[in-house]
Amino acid sequence: MTPLVNGWRRGDSAKVPFHRSVVVRGAPMCTASFKFADGNSVLMSRSSMIVAATWLAWRGQSVLGVRPRGVNSYFLPGGVPEPGETLAEAAAREVCEEVRMIVEPTNLVEVVRVDDVAFGRPDHRVLLVCFEGPGTGEPVADRDEIVEVAWLGRHDWNKFAPAVQKALTERTR
C-alpha cells in the first residue's frame, strides 16, 4: 500500500462531481465527503475546499509555470474539474486551454497531492493534485487567462504559489 502524503494516498483518483470554483461552502465546521474511484473516501472539515488538477512538466531541472492575468505568482498548468471529469481529464483539458499543448489523460500519472491554503484566498483550502506525463507541442500562453509561461529552474521555484512550492518540494525528495 502506498504511503499517505498530507492525508492522501498517491495514485488515488476520482470522478469529481463538483463544478468549477469552490466545492464545499458553509460554516467553518461544515464537512464534506470526497469519494474516489477506488472506493476510498475522506471526510473533510473545511469552510471551503478547491480541488485543482495540474500537470507537472519538466524540462531538465526546470518546471513549466503559468502566470495568470493580474497575479505575480506562477502556478502549474491545470484547474478545477468539471462535473463528471476525472482529475487526469481535467488536467489535460486545462493544459490545452492554458498553454495549447496536448496531454492525453490516459498517459498521466499522479505523483503528488498537497493540501494547503489557497493562494490569495486565506479562508479556502486547495487540494493540489499533480500529474506527470508526456505532452506534445511547445507551451504558448492563452492570452485570455495566462499572460506568461516560463520554464522555472530550482532557483526560481520561489516564484510559484506556496502550494506549488510545497508540491515541488515533496516531489523532489
Domain module count: 1
By CATH reckoning, the class would read Alpha Beta
- CATH topology heading: Nucleoside Triphosphate Pyrophosphohydrolase
Mean pLDDT: 79
* Helix-residue proportion: 10-25%
CATH architectural name: Alpha-Beta Complex
Provide a count of the helices: 2
Proportion of residues in extended strands:
35-45%
Could you outline the blueprint of secondary structure elements for this entry?
Layout: E1 4-5, E2 8-9, E3 31-35, E4 41-45, E5 49-55, E6 58-59, E7 62-68, E8 78-79, H1 87-99, E9 109-118, E10 121-132, E11 146-152, H2 162-171
Parallel strand pairs: 5-10
Antiparallel strand pairs: 1-2, 3-4, 5-8, 6-7, 7-11, 9-10
State the main characteristics.
173 residues, single chain, globular, Nucleoside Triphosphate Pyrophosphohydrolase, mainly beta, disordered N terminus, 2 helices, four-stranded mixed sheet, 11 strands
What does this structure look like?
With 173 residues, the protein is mainly β. The protein has a single domain (4-171), classed as Nucleoside Triphosphate Pyrophosphohydrolase (Alpha-Beta Complex). The protein has helices at residues 87-99, 162-171; strands spanning 4-5, 8-9, 31-35, 41-45, 49-55, 58-59, 62-68, 78-79, 109-118, 121-132, 146-152. The protein has a four-stranded mixed beta sheet, with helices on both faces. A three-stranded antiparallel beta sheet has the order 6-7-11, with no helix packed on it. Strands 1-2 form a two-stranded antiparallel sheet. The longest helix has 13 residues, at 87-99. The relative contact order is 0.21.
